[in-house]
Design brief:
- Keywords: Membrane, Transmembrane, Transmembrane helix.
- The chain has 54 residues and is an all-alpha fold.
- The protein has a domain of 29 residues.
- Helices cover 56% and strands 0% of the residues.
- It has 2 helices and no strands.
- The longest helix is centred in the last third of the chain and has 25 residues.
- It starts with 7 loop residues before the first helix and ends with a helix.
Length: 54
């Protein structure tokens, strides 16, 4: 069964010319280290919680 897409939603969105293009900037070494520490801490906490619960 094919449902026709309501096009009124697209009229409410902004025109493509108005959008601001974002340039992806690569992370610095310090930002990578910080992100890695956050991920490792989260994984460590989840592992401990999993060991307690199960």
């Amino acid at each position: 069964m094919i449902i026709k897409l309501d096009t009124s939603i697209f009229r409410l969105s902004r025109h493509k010319a108005e959008t601001v293009k974002k340039v992806a900037t690569p992370l610095t070494r310090d930002q990578w280290i910080t992100a890695d520490r956050i991920v490792m801490a989260a994984m460590f906490i989840i592992t401990i919680m999993g060991a307690i619960l199960f």
